[in-house]
Automatic annotation (TrEMBL):
It comes from Neptuniibacter caesariensis. Residues 269-402 form the GGDEF domain. Its EC number is 3.1.4.52. This is cyclic-guanylate-specific phosphodiesterase. Pfam families: EAL, GGDEF, PAS. CDD domains: EAL, GGDEF, PAS. It catalyses: 3',3'-c-di-GMP + H2O = 5'-phosphoguanylyl(3'->5')guanosine + H(+).
Length: 690
């Protein structure tokens, strides 16, 4: 019987004692683990014990057939068997038992797995939607309802296009359906719409399900609401690419944008990069506080956004530096016109609290792609041009030019070589005398620093001192200057000559140095100079940054018997109120006021006013930069008797000054002394100090 041998149902014939009379191969495999049963082989113990109660029920006449499920271990496997028992030849001496066995283990396992899967789908944190091949919804889990507000009853049989928002492009949906209909999985993000009309970001994973022949029978979409992640990403993006104070793009955003411009095809017209730096912003921060500084920066940012147009990008690099990128300018003249618009708008007064502030900017301009195709080089070019604009008087702009690179290289060289100048004995002091016009007597000498570079020769002080200030090298250099100047003044006295003061300039960095007082004490003690013969010169701007602290420092210096002078008076705040508070002895009128005297009546008026004001405060006054007799006469008429300048003497070495001072301690041109003057030891027609 072929059906008996090839059936996928196990068939087993037993006698009443459970001896196997016959079985087909499938039953043999289930029970004994082999297709071919060994003759006279007993039933496995577990199997016999499992079927015995059911056979007993039949033999007792409780029925002719019986069906049940057996859970049994056979041939090393845990099986679920659907079993049917039939008693044949009932009523004879040798009844037989006909048993069919079906292995339901696989079906049961699949049922359990399906139940577990359904439970998992219902309770997953992801939204699950299943559609038919036409995209009509057959199933949606609870999480989908929680995210979208739609339940299965409302959407069953519909296509999911009701989730579309206007903010997701049609191209995205075309790509989606093109991918899944091509039997491939699609993964991406969609901005979907909820039932209440609000939108949310959905991370979608849509897969086609195939039958045995490879035909698509379903689509399964698994999605997650990533709105919070997107919001967090947006916040991180803002933190990474935007300035929190002004909401402008920051340095990283600027570099990204500039790189995009450089990588994109060249457009018509000029693209220009502008670097803006606020002039004297630090003074506003120092005098009005950082809150006022922040308010100023915010206003500047708003104005830059207002005065720039489409195809223009504005960024804040940090501090008081901003950049603007102009795109598609017609020509260089167009760039200049737009830059002047920026300068004009930013120059308008700004109201911060009760204060009205006027701020200017210096702007460096470089042409993108023409000056360089590299972002770093372009920023460097704009930086060089911006510093050139500051040197040109501020509140202006400058285009990058190649010679600026050469100047920058020289600056770098100066800063590098300056570090070894002090140790290499390349620095020296020269001295310029001050006189009293009453009698021509020399009253003081000012110590001035010079640098003799071993390769480049003499380097002007205004070229290297600012770099010493910026790098902090001015601290050890200033300490050396003070020590040498004190030694020089003491050396003049030791020659038996009339004592004169030595004047030493203090830089801003020195004034801020906590070790300043100890450095002064060290110079005085080492040289043996009486402190009353030392005069320290400071500038107005140094005092105004923190007046309370400045007064404390000046009082500490004053208590040691040292004189104090305000240098370059008239170029800074020139405030009577702070002069009354400062423990200073003398003002030095800046040389710029004397340059055009007597031809410039404005300078004459300013200078005479400063002299009168100083006299009223009981302070002495020295005029710097006296270069001709007309200037000296003007100062004499206005009762400014202390003078210094090239008319009297150029700065000379200590050796030269000492030699001249030994011969004569006066400048006779101040009082027109005649030949009989006993204050000179040589022919009065000889000018010892020129």
């Amino acid at each position: 019987m072929d059906w008996f041998s090839h059936s996928s149902i196990g068939v087993l014939v037993l006698d009443r004692n459970l001896n196997c009379l016959d079985c087909n191969p499938f039953a043999s495999e289930l029970i004994w683990g082999s297709f071919n049963k060994t003759p006279n082989q007993d039933l496995p113990k577990h199997f016999a014990q499992a079927i015995q109660p059911h056979i007993d029920s039949l033999l007792k006449g409780e029925g002719d057939a019986y069906a049940t499920h057996l859970v049994i271990d056979l041939a090393g496997e845990h099986l679920l068997l659907r079993s049917e028992f039939t008693l044949v030849d009932k009523g004879t001496a040798n009844p037989r038992l006909f048993i069919t066995l079906r292995n339901s283990s696989k079906s049961a396992q699949q049922a359990r797995e399906l139940k577990v899967f359904r439970n998992a789908v219902e309770n997953t944190g992801s939204a699950v939607v299943i559609t038919d091949p036409k995209g009509q919804i057959e199933y949606a889990n609870q999480r989908f309802t929680e995210i979208t507000g739609w339940n299965l009853e409302e959407i069953k049989g519909k296509r999911p296009n009701f989730l579309r928002s206007e903010k997701t492009t049609l191209e995205t949906y075309k790509e989606l359906w093109g991918t899944v209909l091509n039997h491939q999985q699609w993964r991406g993000t969609l901005l979907n719409k909820r039932k209440n009309g609000s939108t949310y970001w959905s991370l979608q994973n849509i897969s086609p399900i195939h039958d045995e022949l490879g035909n698509i029978i379903n689509f399964v979409s698994v999605s997650e609401d990533i709105s919070q992640i997107k919001e967090h990403d947006a916040q991180m993006e803002k933190m990474a690419y935007y300035d929190p104070l002004t909401n402008l793009g920051n340095r990283r955003s600027f570099r990204r944008t500039l790189d995009q411009y450089l990588d994109s095809p060249q457009e018509q017209g000029l693209n220009a990069l502008l670097l803006l730096d606020l002039d004297h912003f630090k003074q506003i921060n120092d005098t009005m506080g950082h809150e006022a500084g922040d308010a100023l920066l915010t206003t500047i940012a708003s104005r830059l956004n207002f005065c720039t147009r489409q195809r223009t990008s504005v960024f804040r690099l940090g501090g008081d530096e901003f950049t603007i990128i102009f795109r598609n300018c017609n020509d260089r003249t167009h760039v200049i016109e737009r830059t002047n618009e920026v300068l004009s708008l930013l120059a308008q007064p700004i109201h911060i609290g009760p204060h009205e502030i006027s701020i200017t900017v210096s702007i460096g301009i470089t042409l993108i792609g023409l000056d360089s195709p590299d972002a770093s080089d372009l920023l460097r070019n704009a930086d060089l041009a911006m510093y050139y604009a500051k040197k040109s008087g501020r509140n202006t702009f400058a285009f990058y030019e190649q010679h600026m690179d050469e100047e920058a290289q020289r600056t770098l060289s100066i800063e590098h070589d300056l570090r070894s100048a002090l140790d290499g004995n390349q620095l020296r002091l020269v001295y310029q005398p001050q006189i009293s016009a009453d009698n021509g007597k020399i009253t003081a000498i000012e110590a001035l620093l010079r640098w003799d570079h071993p390769l480049d020769g003499p380097i002007p002080p205004d070229e290297f001192i600012p770099h010493a200030e910026e790098t902090g090298l001015i601290i050890p250099i200033g300490r050396w200057v003070m020590a040498e100047a004190c030694k020089a003044a003491k050396a003049i006295q030791d020659l038996g000559l009339p004592p004169i003061k030595v004047c030493v300039n203090l830089s801003t960095r020195q004034f801020d140095d906590p070790a300043l007082i100890s450095h002064i004490e060290e110079a005085i003690e080492t040289s043996g100079l009486d402190p009353r013969w030392l005069e320290l010169e400071i500038t107005e701007s140094m005092l105004m940054r923190d007046m309370s602290t400045a007064i404390d420092i000046l009082n500490s210096i004053k208590q040691k018997g040292i004189s104090l002078a305000i240098d370059d008076f008239g170029t800074g705040y020139s405030s009577l109120s702070y002069l009354k508070k400062m423990p200073v002895d003398l003002l030095k009128i800046d040389r710029s006021f004397l340059q055009d005297i007597p031809s410039d009546r404005d300078n004459m008026a300013i200078t005479s006013t400063i002299i009168a004001m100083t006299k009223q405060l009981g302070l002495s006054v020295v005029a710097e930069g006296v270069e001709n007799q007309a200037q000296m006469a003007f100062l004499n008429r206005n009762q400014c008797t202390l003078m210094q300048g090239y008319l009297i003497s150029q700065p000379v070495s200590l050796t030269q000054f000492t030699s001249n001072y030994t011969d004569c301690q006066h400048f006779c041109g101040a009082c027109n002394l005649d030949k009989t003057c006993d204050k000179r030891s040589i022919d009065p027609r000889v000018d010892l100090f020129n």
